[in-house]
Amino acid sequence: METLIGQAPSGGLKGAGAAAADLIKDVNLASFRQDVLDASRKVPVIVDFWAPWCGPCRQLGPLLEKAVLAAGGAVLMAKIDVDQNPEIAQQMRIQSIPAVYAFYQGQPVDGFQGALPESQVKAFVDRLVKMSGGASPVDDVLEFARTAVAEGRLDEAEAAYAEVLQAEDQHHGALAGLAKIAVARGSLDEAAEFLAAIPEEKANDAEVAGARSALALAHEAADVGELGPLLAAVEADPADFQARFDLAVALHAEGRNGEAIDHLLDIVKRDRKWNDEAARKQLVKLFDVLGFEDPLAADGRRRLSSILFA
């Protein structure tokens, strides 16, 4: 999938386009004050103590660099070869490598020793971004993409999600977003592939659940038929719950979510136990697709609660 970084929000993921040399530097005794202490007055600076002969250093270094680049300038990184700069290592009391310190406002504020898995490295960098009051560029791009989807600008949203995946190739929010775009375009097999790529530990995330529900509803919509006959069936027999249920599915497929919610709530009000509570369960799927903040979903949840607990 081709990325169009220029279509992301202003600034975007600067790490994807900015020179790595602006964010990651080899530092020695002469440049330590400027590149670490002075630079940390503006943003946190991660100092990676390493050596060419150190195997764990060679594993950790690229993970740190990837996370720093993904942060797009919200943090910087200084690499210090302890063999070439023993004075700094001694002053920092480095006993073994890899050793990582984070400086902010001229002072060490966090750190760890030894190699870490990528998820913990990312969490370390994210803590530093939040510590300095910055917002993660990934979060900014995701918010841009969500807004673009809501406004029907699917190409721009797709480009933004793809940009996030350049920085984090298994980001569950970006994969879920791409799955929802694929559903909107009718590419259900592609949507399923995006969902299958989401790490198992993120399978129950709200965005992932929403994308999964969107795909399930799209499959259902393909089986229920056209709106006209369904409307006629409901008008002829308001208690034909299956026709009303299918009508709600078809209405959602047409983007008429308010009407879909009304019909499902009508079923729940008339017979909440019908078909093993199918209408209530369908409402939960629909609310997942719309998202927690959506006004239709919020109103629907309130109305559903008033029926169930009346």
From TrEMBL:
GO molecular function: protein-disulfide reductase activity
Record carries keyword Lipid metabolism: no
Keyword Disulfide bond: yes
Domain Thioredoxin: 2-130
Keywords, in A-Z order: Disulfide bond, Electron transport, Redox-active center, Transport
Positions of transmembrane segments: none
Gene3D superfamilies listed in its UniProt record: Glutaredoxin, Tetratricopeptide repeat domain
GO BP: any one term: cell redox homeostasis
A GO CC term attached to the entry: cytosol
CDD domains: ybbN
Listed PANTHER family: GEO12009P1
Protein name stated in the entry: Co-chaperone YbbN
Source organism of the structure: Zavarzinia compransoris
